[in-house]
Amino acid sequence: MVESLYVGVEWCGDVWLAVAFTGDGFDHAETFDGVGACWSRYEERARRLLVDVPIGLVESGDPTRRCDAVARSVLGDRAGTLVSPPVREATRKQRYSTADRVHRRKSGQTLTERAFDRSEGIARLDDLLQELPEAAAVVRESHPEVCFRALAGDPLEFSRETAAGYAERMRTLARYDRDAAPTVQKAAESTGDADVSVADVLDAVALAYTACPGDGDLRTLPPDPPTDAVGLPMEIVYRAASPLDGA
Fold it and tell me: What are the φ/ψ torsions at residue 73 (nearest 5 degrees)?
């Protein structure tokens, strides 16, 4: 019998980094050029796949999803790491000026360049989930900072790009699983010459730990997530023994 996999996926801009666990622990890590290739790799075995890309998009009106607002409230000083996505139509535009014009028309607000920079990955995943209902049943949105917040018990203090942030995240993972350090090392070694940072690896590992059955329950921000116009949930998944303060 083939074992199920629990996968955390970090979109790194040019590549998608997947870290996969079985119920017994780390299985492998792999990089993909597109989210379609990533899904094809795991569609037969993935029981749950958590991805650090927004799922469930606003069509028009207030562009801030409730899950993003709640996540900011639980992240404290790390709230700035969470970027609300563009409205759905704007994610399909290739130029910032065009995307901003669409976003303004649909929402009445300016589109940030940080949000636009994530548009390609958001649009590709949105297309996949609308075309393949079987993928939508497995793939769910999460956010590494929310995962670390849940694992640590408190908001993290340092940026993931700093040495202090790396140490803080490694301590958090090691408290959750004594095998976290070799897991991170194996995952990093699996990226080869792909354009993946150590911070990306840590994020993907945190997502994978969250996806895998373990201590605490799988929960969502907000606890009663709405769905968007095409039926996709607007949620951020995390694992904790009790709901996060502020959620």
Answer: -70, -25
Instruction: Determine the 3-state secondary structure of 147 from DSSP.
Output: helix
Report the phi/psi class of residue 246: left, alpha or beta, with left for phi > 0 and alpha for psi in -120 to 50. Answer: left
| Coil, strand or helix at 132 | coil
Q: Which of 11, 5, 3, 4 is nearest to 141 (CA)?
A: 11
Q: What residues contact residue 11 under an 8 Å CB cut-off, 6+ apart?
A: 17, 35, 51, 52, 53, 118, 121
Given a contact cutoff of 8 angstroms between Cβ atoms, the answer to whether 217 and 239 are in contact is yes
* pLDDT score of 173: 97
- Concatenating the DSSP letter of every residue in 86-131 gives PPHHHHT-SSHHHHHHHHHHHHSSPPPHHHHHTHHHHHHHHHHHHH
pLDDT tens by residue, 107-135: 999 999 999 999 999 999 999 999 999 99
- Amino acid residing at 80: G
Q: Return all residues near 89 (Cβ < 8 A) that are at least 6 apart.
A: 59, 102, 106
The Cα 172–Cα 147 span in angstroms is 10
Cα angle at 71 between 75 and 244, to 5 degrees?
A: 70
Question: Over the stretch 146-186, which tens digit does the pLDDT of each residue have?
Answer: 999 999 999 999 999 999 999 999 999 999 999 999 999 99
92: its two tokens: 């399909």
Which pair of tokens denotes residue 103? 């976003």
Residue 87: closest CA among 113, 114, 56, 66: 56
